[in-house]
Specification:
By secondary structure, this protein is of the alpha+beta class. The chain has helices at 2-7, 29-42, 84-92, 94-102, 115-126, 130-142, 164-171, 173-177, 224-256, 261-264, 267-276, 282-290, 296-306, 310-313, 323-329, 383-386, 420-430, 462-470, and strands spanning 21-26, 51-52, 65-70, 76-83, 145-149, 155-159, 179-184, 187-189, 201-205, 339-341, 349-351, 363-367, 373-377, 393-394, 396-398, 406-415, 434-442, 447-456, 475-480.
Length: 481
């Protein structure tokens, strides 16, 4: 111990005050302070050499009173005063401390006794690299500490060299993430300032929605908790970016092959592929594509196979589908579509996906081969082709019920920026519509063109949906197509 202090800490032999040490074991904490008073009354204490690890234990739960006095002959003597229970923990570790408590059930358990273990478990969950976890643990077990105060007077133990950012993360994770400034002892200080014993720390936070930590903080924070929380935050940010990149990659791959996005990129199909590839949800699948763990081409291939191949994925303008194929591709066909054929009520009716009519649109009906009546808007691009067979045109009218659900396609035009797709999707979700598919393209002028397909029960709600989307930052137009 003496050699280590001289070599590692660079001290002279004359600066080492614990060459002679005495350890005093007592029965209770009250006795510890009583003995300390007796010792200081008999021998003069050395200034700056008293440490109260009972009131403020070390990170590893070490507790004791340390003091150095001028003993007989004028030589310094270090004294350690502790209870038998504290001695068990100091000599044999934290587990021995708990074992000692097991033998004395009459003593009331301290509710914070397992805080150290809970913190270790939290670090272990947040730190993916085992070597990094062990390095953090060794650092916290072996480092000295400083004790600072909150504005309310609560004591916070931090490793030596800790900064206001370490303090903020110790108080609460969100306080750390939103930290923008600090006041130490009533004075504003840089976030990288080192804290000293007795400092009173006040943290300023940002209420902005996008507030978060800076990567530069990793270069000066000292506590393992702060480092792990900052790294975890950026890991989540990278995941969000990977999800958006994955979506864009799949959309580009489908457009390159000329495949219909609305028909293939359904939530049901993507969920099935995600489970096949051992991902928990569609977001996990998108993230895997964005991180290049899964190729976009393989996802597109699976989507095509889910509807029976490339030929089955192509749109048929005249909608000459077989009943079995239509049933597989349109799960809404058997539901109430809110349309009736004039003069009859026992005909299978479905809404065309090419124009997605909703109540209020002028509509026409077209009798398909073996697949009932397909309902189109009068201004649908496929109507001229259908009108070449006038004997198959029928009159239809709207008759929506409480169970009717309608598909709506909207197009959104916005200035391209980071997290645009995420913000637009959140705005749509907040209006309680069920998004079925989405596609995004960006022009050379950095104009993002997004198209969404979603379900809604009341088309009158569409106005409020478009209004919510237009309020998203960067969006300058949103309209139904």
């Amino acid at each position: 111990s003496v050699y280590q202090k001289m070599i590692v800490r660079g001290r002279d032999f004359a600066d080492i005050y614990d060459l002679v040490g005495v350890r005093i074991l007592v029965e209770s904490v009250r006795d510890c302070y009583s003995v300390l008073g007796i010792i200081h009354a008999k021998w003069s204490p050395m200034p700056g050499r008293f440490k109260d690890f009972i009131a403020m234990p070390k990170f590893n739960m070490y507790q004791s009173l340390h003091t150095t006095v001028i003993g007989p002959g004028g030589k310094p003597v270090e004294l350690q005063i502790r209870t038998v229970e504290m001695h068990q923990g100091a000599e044999f570790g934290v587990a021995a401390h708990w074992r000692y408590k097991q033998g004395d059930q009459s003593n009331k358990q301290n509710p914070d006794e397992f805080a150290w273990l809970r913190q270790l478990v939290e670090w272990q969950r947040e730190t993916e690299d085992p070597d990094e976890f062990m390095d953090q643990l060794r650092y916290d077990l072996g480092s000295s500490e400083v004790f600072v105060f909150t504005p309310k007077g609560d004591v916070i133990a931090l490793p030596t060299g800790a900064t206001p950012v370490d303090f903020a993360y110790t108080v609460h994770t969100e306080v750390g993430h939103r930290c923008v400034g600090a006041r130490v002892n009533g004075k504003l200080v840089p976030l990288e300032s080192a804290l000293n014993n007795g400092d009173v720390i006040e943290i300023f936070t940002s209420k902005a929605e996008g507030a978060g930590p800076s990567r530069d903080w990793l270069s000066f924070v000292a506590s393992a908790r702060a480092k792990s929380k900052i790294k975890a935050w950026f890991s989540r940010e990278r995941r969000d970016e990977a999800i958006e990149q994955g979506k864009d990659s799949i959309v580009r791959a489908m457009r390159k092959q000329g495949l219909p996005l609305q028909r293939l990129m359904t939530t049901q199909a993507l969920n099935a592929i995600a489970l096949d590839l051992h991902h928990t949800d569609v977001s996990g699948l998108y993230a895997a594509v964005g991180e290049s763990k899964v190729s976009a081409a393989s996802v597109v291939q699976r989507l095509v196979e889910s509807v029976g191949g490339v030929e089955e994925a192509d749109d048929d303008a005249a909608e000459t589908l077989t009943p079995a194929r239509a049933q597989r591709r349109d799960t809404r066909s058997a539901s109430d579509v809110g349309v009736m054929v004039v003069g009859t009520d026992d005909v299978w009716v479905k809404l065309a996906k090419c124009c997605t009519p909703v109540p209020g649109d002028e509509i026409i009906g077209f009798v398909t081969r073996g697949n009932g009546v397909s309902v189109h808007r009068n201004d649908c691009v496929n109507v001229p082709e259908l009108e070449r067979e006038p004997d198959r045109m029928v009159a239809v009218s709207w008759s929506p019920t409480a169970s009717s659900v309608f598909l709506v396609n909207i197009q959104i035009e916005a200035l391209d920026r980071a997290r645009l797709l995420s913000d637009v999707t959140r705005a749509l979700s907040d209006t309680h519509v069920n998004i079925l598919s989405a596609s995004v393209t960006t022009t050379r002028d950095r104009i993002a063109m997004s198209r969404f397909t979603f379900e809604m029960a009341d088309p009158k709600h569409l106005g409020s949906v478009l209004k919510a989307v237009r309020n998203v930052e960067g969006v300058y137009d949103a309209y139904r197509v």
